[in-house]
Amino acid sequence: MPFLDYVLQTPSYGWKDPAGALVKPTSGQILKEFFLRLNLFRTRKNWLPVFSWLKVICLSVFFAMFLIYYLSWWTLLAAFVYGMIIMGTHGTIWHHRYCTHGAYKFRNGFWRFITQNLTINVIPEEIYVISHHVHHSKSDQPGDPYNAQAGFLYCFLADVNHQPIAKDLSEGDYSRVRSLMKHTGVKANTYAQYQQWGSYVNPYKAILSWILNWGFWYGAFYLLGGNALVFSLFGAAGFWAVGVRTFNYDGHAKGQDKQREGTDYNQNDKSINQLWPGLVAGEWHNNHHLYPKSARSGFKPHQVDLAWYYIRMMSWLGAVTEYRDNKKQFYEHYYLPYKKANLNQKL
């Protein structure tokens, strides 16, 4: 059995039925699985999903305080820019293009650390990276941890129900997880620690990193704009933390066939290019599924790609030593042939 078939913890309702078709659990089944996996009394190995959602709950308090006490035209603007653009673009730069796909390389650990901590810490790298490899291997097929065809809730709660790594991997298979995560700089548990905690990252180190990151940004925002800025931007991070859980459902057309000729060239799954995620976070998703290892996914002139601009800037500064850019291949194999065929049809 291929490694990516079993590296993730299988939900109680399974990935597919005996005939091989996608299992589409009811909302009740999804919620039952969600709360079961957040039960620390059942097993300490549930700690990472609990930790991930604890951060969301904490950020929701900031968001509520922002709305009640600090809402004004300038704090709303700051929150919009931070939550919609900065947080989204950083997720593309760090979690997506670097941690998962290795689309570029840093000169050293210092620049990697700076990039990792450019924003408020929200998503555990481990939950994102391993599951995203599976997503690309099984896009819109049974086993895809956020298969949009199974519904909104299936995707929205995927970070708990479908994305954590399996808790019973062999030592050899755990080494393969470590190899997929090694370049991220997140220090790994030993195999004995993995057996104890059920995760790649150690809880004590994850919690310390969280405290230091939030402490730094709390202080920086306070010095720049007092509590008004603190609660605005931490609240915006909370809004993003919830909103990002809806992305793959929308980015794969809610499980429907919505691809447009001349816009979406990858037809191996249901991914689509969307204007808003593209403009604010560089997530031209269909392009990305064509060339997942490309550091740029905004290939066409109108496809603004802020994540790519950051990577190019870091390359200019010498902080990034190499990157992949598949724009040329996109034009040669997809865009120009499409334009030529269209022109011939008109003639």
TrEMBL record:
Q: Which InterPro entries match?
A: Acyl-CoA_DS, FA_desaturase_dom
Its annotated compartments are: Membrane
Q: Keyword check for Lipid biosynthesis, yes or no.
A: yes
- GO cellular component entries: membrane
Q: What are the coiled-coil residue ranges? A: none
Membrane-crossing segments per the record: 47-70, 76-95, 215-242
Residue span(s) of domain Fatty acid desaturase: 72-311
What species was this sequence derived from? Answer: Mucilaginibacter celer
Which UniProt keyword terms apply here? Fatty acid biosynthesis, Fatty acid metabolism, Iron, Lipid biosynthesis, Lipid metabolism, Membrane, Oxidoreductase, Transmembrane, Transmembrane helix
Q: What is this protein called?
A: Acyl-CoA desaturase
Taxonomically, which superkingdom?
Bacteria
Q: Which family does it belong to?
A: Belongs to the fatty acid desaturase type 2 family.
Molecular functions per Gene Ontology: oxidoreductase activity, acting on paired donors, with oxidation of a pair of donors resulting in the reduction of molecular oxygen to two molecules of water
- One family from Pfam that matches here is FA_desaturase
Keyword DNA repair attributed: no
Q: What is its main location?
A: membrane
Which Gene Ontology BP annotations are present? fatty acid biosynthetic process
Q: Membrane topology for this entry?
A: Multi-pass membrane protein
